[in-house]
Amino acid sequence: MPSTLDGQLTMEKTPSYFVTKEVPQRIYNMSKNIKLIVVVRDPVTRAISDYTQAATKRPAMKPFEKMAFIDNTSRIVDTKWAAVKIGVYAKHLEKWLKYFPLRQIHFVNGEQLIANPAGEMAKVQDFLGLKQIVTDKHFYLNETRGFPCLKKPEGSGRPHCLGKTKGRQHPNVDPHVLQRLRDFFKPFNAKFYQLTGQSFNWN
Ligand SMILES: Nc1ncnc2c1ncn2[C@@H]1O[C@H](COP(=O)(O)OS(=O)(=O)O)[C@@H](OP(=O)(O)O)[C@H]1O
């Protein structure tokens, strides 16, 4: 991490921090008072998003319906598959809570970040003790992308949307497979709501 002067905030993001088991202790050793932000979304949609991204790089990948289970007959969810494993948020969070109190962790609701970006950003700014600089004036819905993009409130400068690798079309997944995954994640989601004190209404 670069040095931070008085009055400055340094931010750093990598999605894999949340799920890499050595990271909470490493970060604790660097700073016990650090503020942590985790963006979470429905783990079933997250798994499909993860798969979509991987399948773009590896077109020979098996269909999602085959990847999700350990074999074709038993319908046991493959918890070793990263797309599934990462979505078991409660297990990852428990490791962080051994080092950091909940008040130092802020959870951004990934669905709300799309539906109401200014609202989610207000909570982030609050958590970081910042003035409410980013507001609804900074977002507009890009109809073509179907996602919010950033704009300068004064109308000057070009708007900025995330790159083409974000907000990709997901494959249609067999509804029975989706239901099986929903059932699998249900208790872990409940545990996550209990640990965070927040309900994300994923089921
Ligand atoms: N504003 C805006 N524009 C485009 N996409 C948006 C936006 N806000 C959130 N999202 C969702 O972000 C998902 C991609 O995030 P990732 O977690 O893959 O990003 S990364 O791992 O940090 O690179 C991406 O997932 P996919 O839809 O599966 O591509 C989006 O659903």
Quick rundown:
The protein is mainly α. Helices cover 39% and strands 9% of the residues. The chain has a single domain, classed as P-loop containing nucleotide triphosphate hydrolases (Rossmann fold).
Descriptive overview:
- This protein is mainly α and 203 residues long.
- The chain has a single domain (15-163, 185-196), classed as Rossmann fold (3-Layer(aba) Sandwich).
- The protein is built from eight helices and four strands.
- The protein has helices spanning 23-30, 43-57, 64-67, 82-85, 89-97, 110-115, 117-127, 175-196; strands at residues 36-40, 105-109, 139-142, 147-150.
- The strands form two sheets. The chain has a two-stranded parallel sheet.
- α5 packs parallel to α8 (175-196).
- The radius of gyration is 19 Å and the shape is globular.
- The mean pLDDT is 95.
- The structure holds 3'-phosphate-adenosine-5'-phosphate sulfate.
- 3'-phosphate-adenosine-5'-phosphate sulfate binds next to α2, α6 and β4.
- It comes from Patella caerulea (Rayed Mediterranean limpet).
SSE topology:
Elements: H1 23-30, E1 36-40, H2 43-57, H3 64-67, H4 82-85, H5 89-97, E2 105-109, H6 110-115, H7 117-127, E3 139-142, E4 147-150, H8 175-196
Parallel strand pairs: 1-2
Antiparallel strand pairs: 3-4
Helix pairs in contact: 5-8
Bound molecules: 3'-phosphate-adenosine-5'-phosphate sulfate.
Protein name: Sulfotransferase domain-containing protein
Organism: Patella caerulea (Rayed Mediterranean limpet)
Pfam family, one: Sulfotransfer_1
